[in-house]
């Protein structure tokens, strides 16, 4: 009788342990699914500025074409290719600016700015843009040796590495 009680208690403990493991696995699966959904939403909120590109000059590189280290990331692609906003925001500048050539600046909700330089054509004015909206066309205005878009990301007015910023938003250029 005592053996039966112990055996019953052991089976109950084993069943409870199994149930706890199953519940933990279900929670882990739900968390993983939630992360996948979150990444899918992020991917809709952010995008690369161009497609069919080759990265040419990276952030911080030295070079004869600029006086200090390179402040952005260069996406070389066909002249006239569409340039898209990397995230939703407000166009705060669209015009010509010296070595940047034709340039658009978009300020995003968190205050971060994305700069798009060397455009052949600007297709937006001051106002709202959405992620992926075509804002201009690839060109070679300003200080450039070939058609590309110079993407610069600025936080508090200071350039940061666009590659790091893009990767932090789920993009892999």
Task: Describe the secondary-structure layout.
Elements: H1 2-45, E1 54-55, E2 73-76, E3 82-84, E4 89-96, E5 102-107, E6 113-122, E7 127-129, E8 134-138, E9 148-155, E10 158-160, H2 162-168
What labels would you give this structure?
173 residues, alpha+beta, Glucose Permease (Domain IIA), 10 strands, 29% helix, 30% strand, elongated
Description:
29% of the residues lie in helices and 30% in strands. The protein is of the alpha+beta class. The protein has a single domain, classed as Glucose Permease (Domain IIA), CATH 2.70.70.10. Strands 1, 2, 3, 4, 5, 6, 7, 8, 9 and 10 form a 10-stranded antiparallel beta sheet that branches. The longest helix is centred in the N-terminal third of the chain and has 44 residues, at 2-45. It starts with a helix and ends in a 5-residue tail after the last helix.
Could you say which structural class the secondary elements and strand pairing correspond to?
alpha+beta
Proper CATH architecture: Distorted Sandwich
CATH class: Mainly Beta
* Assigned CATH superfamily: Glucose Permease (Domain IIA)
Number of strands: 10
Strand content: 25-35%
The average pLDDT is: 89
Low-pLDDT segments, ≥5 res:
none
Measured on Cα atoms, how large is the radius of gyration? 25 Å
**What is the global morphology?**
elongated
Q: Could you please say which CATH topology applies here? A: Glucose Permease (Domain IIA)
Helical content class? 25-40%
Q: Tell me the distance between the termini.
A: 70 Å
Largest sheet: 10 strands, antiparallel
Number of domains: 1
Helix count equals: 2
The run of helices and strands is: HEEEEEEEEEEH
């Amino acid at each position: 009788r005592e053996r039966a009680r112990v055996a019953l208690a052991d089976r109950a403990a084993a069943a409870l342990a199994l149930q706890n493991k199953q519940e933990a696995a279900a929670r882990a699966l739900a968390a993983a699914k939630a992360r996948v959904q979150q990444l899918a939403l992020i991917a809709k909120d952010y995008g690369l500025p161009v497609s069919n590109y080759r990265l040419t000059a990276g952030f911080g590189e030295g070079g004869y074409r600029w006086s200090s280290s390179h402040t952005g990331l260069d996406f070389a692609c066909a002249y006239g290719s569409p340039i898209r906003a990397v995230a939703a925001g407000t166009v705060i500048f669209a015009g010509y600016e010296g070595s940047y050539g034709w340039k658009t600046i978009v300020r995003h909700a968190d205050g971060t700015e994305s700069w798009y330089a060397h455009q052949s054509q600007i297709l937006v004015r001051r106002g709202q843009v959405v992620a992926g909206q075509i804002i201009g066309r690839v060109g070679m205005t300003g200080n450039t040796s070939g058609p590309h878009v110079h993407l610069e990301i600025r936080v508090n007015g200071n350039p940061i590495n666009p590659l790091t910023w893009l990767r932090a938003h789920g993009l892999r250029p």
